[in-house]
Amino acid sequence: MEMEEEKKVATKTIVDEKKWLYSIFLTSLKNLRVSKIDTILIHDSNTILNKINGDRIYKTLDELKKNKLVKNIGCSIYCPSELNKLIKRYNFDVVQAPFNIFDRRILTSGLSRVIERKKIKLHLRSIFLQGLLLVEQNNLTKKFSKYKKKLSIFHKWAKENKITYLRACISMVSQVKFQKLIVGVLNHLQLKDIVYSCSQSTKSVPDFYIKSDDSLINPRRWEH
Fold first, then answer.
1. Average pLDDT, the chain
2. Would residue 23 be called left, alpha or beta, if left means φ above 0 and alpha means ψ between -120 and 50 degrees?
3. Cα radius of gyration (the chain)
4. How many CB atoms neighbour CB 34 within 10 A?
5. Which of 6, 40, 96, 155 is positioned for an S-S bond with 76, CB 3.0–4.6 A?
6. Is the distance from CB of 82 to CB of 45 less than 8 angstroms?
7. CA distance 143 to 176
8. Span 12-55, pLDDT tens digits
9. What is the rounded distance in angstroms from the CA atom of residue 16 to the CA atom of residue 58?
10. pLDDT(5) > 60
C-alpha cells in the first residue's frame, strides 16, 4: 500500500537520543502509513530546556524538518515561564499550551501576542481541564473535593446564563488567537457535541480568577 500524503498527523515525543528518536519516528510513519507528518512536538519542555540535551533534540527535529519528514516542529508547555525561555532559544513553528476557564495564563502573560508576532502557531489543549470542568459537583471523586468550591462558581454562572459547561469552555477560547484545538473524547457522541458547540456563536465568559500556582490548573499536581 502506498503511503498517504494528505493526512495531517501531529505527534509528541519524549525521546532525547537521536538514533532512538529517528527509530521511533520512522516506526510511527510506517504504522500510520504515511511518508511524513505535519507536526512533531516535544512532550515535556523540561527535556529541551536542559541546554545540552535541548540543543541536541532541537538539532535532530530540525534535521527531520529539513529532510521534509515533518512540516512543523514544536513543544508542549505547562506554564508561560517555560515558553518564554523556549522561544528565546529555539525557532519553533508550533507551541501547544493549556487554556481554559480557569487557566488564562497564556493570554494574561502577554505571550499569546509574542507568539503571534513571531508567527508561531498556537495549539490549545486542556480546554475542558481534562474533563473536570464538565463534571457535576455530585459526581466529583474524592480527590477533587477540595476544588468543589471553585468549580461551583463556574457551574453556577453557567446555569444562571443557561449555557452548557461545554459551550462555555469552547466560548472561552475565542479570547485568544489560535490555529488548532486539541480535545479528548470517549465516544463519537461527545465529539458531535463538541463540533456542534464550535458551530454556535460564542458567549462572553467572565474571568474566573485563580492564582497561577493553584494546583487546580495543573493536572500534574492533582493527587492520584
1. 85
2. alpha
3. 19
4. 18
5. 96
6. yes
7. 31
8. 555 545 676 778 788 888 888 888 889 988 887 877 777 777 88
9. 9
10. no
